[in-house]
Amino acid sequence: MPVLTIRAGPYHPAEMSDPECGIPIESYATMPFLEASVSVGGSIEQVFDFLTTTDNLLKLVPEDLKLRAVKVPARLELGSQMELQILAFGPPQNVVYEITEFARPHRFTETQVKGLLGRYVHEHALIAQPGGTLLVSDRIEFEPPGGLMGLMLTADRLRTMLERGITHRQTALKRLLDAS
């Protein structure tokens, strides 16, 4: 099991501990969020290329989510859209994410533009560490859906599901990158 750091909760800008990560303080809000990071081997360019190849992104998703690519580019870039179908929650849910920030090789952000949640923004950041390792950091901001679905998918339930998913993602990422 990799060394994995997870933080969750509503975020206060004053809590930001690493201004070196390049995330503007004003982008943090008090909405529910989840952060996780893991240290991996490889150059920042290699890891960034791995993460922006959509076939690899799909390898990092838990199988029980039953995620299926509907329409995805081979490689992500600014403005790319990924249409995915989630089959794990009863009727199929189609979701579309757009790459809204792309700062090669340090960071990219995917934002839900169509889907179940009220808001979903996933930032992927890569930070070089002493000793030649790389810190891969994920930050997900989310809001539950409205209406009746919001009664079932509360912020706490979503946080639990996302924590499980991000733990799987970080573990798979470390295993795949450290093996290559």
List keywords for this structure.
180 residues; Alpha-D-Glucose-1,6-Bisphosphate, Chain A, domain 4; 8 strands
Question: Residue share in helices?
Answer: 25-40%
Major β-sheet annotation: 8 strands, antiparallel
Stretches where pLDDT is under 50 for at least 5 consecutive residues are: 11-21, 23-29
How many strands?
Answer: 8
Provide a count of the helices: 4
Shape: globular
Any idea of the CATH topology?
Alpha-D-Glucose-1,6-Bisphosphate, Chain A, domain 4
How are the SSEs ordered, and which strands pair?
Layout (H helix, E strand, L loop, with lengths): L3 E7 L21 E9 L3 H8 L2 H6 L7 E5 L9 E6 L6 E11 L3 E8 L4 E10 L5 E10 L3 H6 L2 H25 L1
Antiparallel strand pairs: 1-2, 2-8, 3-4, 4-5, 5-6, 6-7, 7-8
Explain how this protein is built:
There is one protein chain. A hairpin with a 6-residue loop joins strand 4 and strand 5. With 180 residues, the chain is an alpha+beta fold. The longest helix has 25 residues.
Task: Give a brief description.
With 180 residues, this protein is α+β, with helices and mostly antiparallel strands. It has helices at residues 44-51, 54-59, 147-152, 155-179, and strands at residues 4-10, 32-40, 67-71, 81-86, 93-103, 107-114, 119-128, 134-143. Strand 6 (107-114) and strand 7 form a beta hairpin.
